[in-house]
Amino acid sequence: MEQDRILHLLQQVRDGSLSPEHALARLKIEPFEDLGYAKVDHHRALRQGVPEVIFGSGKTAEQIVGIVRAMRKNGQSVLITRLDAEKARAVSEQADIRYDPVSRIAVSGEQSGVTAPGYLVVAAAGTSDLPVAEEAAVTAEALGNRVERLYDVGVAGLHRLLAHLDTLAQARVVIAAAGMEGALASVIGGLVSCPVIAVPTSIGYGANFGGLSALLSMLNSCASGVSVVNIDNGFGAGYLASIINHMGGADK
Q: Which stretches make up the PurE domain (predicted)?
């Protein structure tokens, strides 16, 4: 989308319908748009293939609406993460968004559909891990990936995970979200040949330390091919999994 828009601008200069001076003025605002409270990066999609993502936590509804309008004006689809239900209602009164309360993600604009050849798996140890797992899954879907969900497959009942070995074996990348001691990532890492992205969640009792115990367990995994994102960072896991899934190669 971003590359097409810049190419169209250059074609207008070539055919004389736009002067070089006007094209220069347009390009000067392309790197970012200064809204005062935010500098909207309109070149993010050109550089990285994905438009800037709005982190909703800590921003007012009015600030989010302003950023959404700036991005939509430039033809970009918008992903908003960590948006609570009350703020989502306020944003929806001024901007066209689709909101998922479990993942706390809102989307504005049309999505491109599936653009990667394979699929990725999002596995959650327990039902309490679903908000983080869904943040990963919805992010990956918004970025053009087919996602298979395996939920409540933690190590307390390992047979629940083993019943889905075929699905795991065909995945290009697996995201494993778990709290408590975070063992799910190591178990999956020992079963698959693809990369595993471990997401420690803040779910657990006192000595869980808000997800620190799961984080340290995952960082110390003895399974090869396991990488770890920060506590509760489902978005980061979904984004990274999308990059891996779009790297090409024949479907498994």
A: 118-250
Q: Which range marks the domain in which residue 229 is found?
A: 119-246
Q: Is the pTM of this model over 0.90?
A: no
In terms of domains, do 234 and 140 share one?
yes
Taking only the tens place, the pLDDT of each residue in 162-177 is: 999 999 999 999 999 9
- Rounded to 5 degrees, φ, ψ at 48 are -115, -10
Q: 234-245 vs 130-142: helix axis angle to the nearest 10?
A: 40
Say if residues 78 and 42 touch (Cβ distance below 8 Å).
Answer: no
Question: How many whole angstroms separate alpha carbon 172 and alpha carbon 35?
Answer: 39
Residue 14 lies in a domain: no
Whose CA is closest to 140, among 118, 117, 120, 124? Answer: 120
**What pLDDT, in 10s, does the model give residues 119-159?**
999 999 999 999 999 999 999 999 999 999 999 999 889 99
Residue with tokens 């899954």: 137
Kindly state whether residue 17 falls inside one of the protein's structural domains.
no
Q: Tell me the CATH number at 142.
A: 3.40.50.1970
The Cα–Cα gap between 93 and 61 comes to 10
Whose CA is closest to 103, among 125, 81, 86, 121? 81
Check whether residue 88 and residue 133 sit in a common domain: no
From 83, 108, 133, the end of a domain falls on 108
CA distance 200 to 156: 16
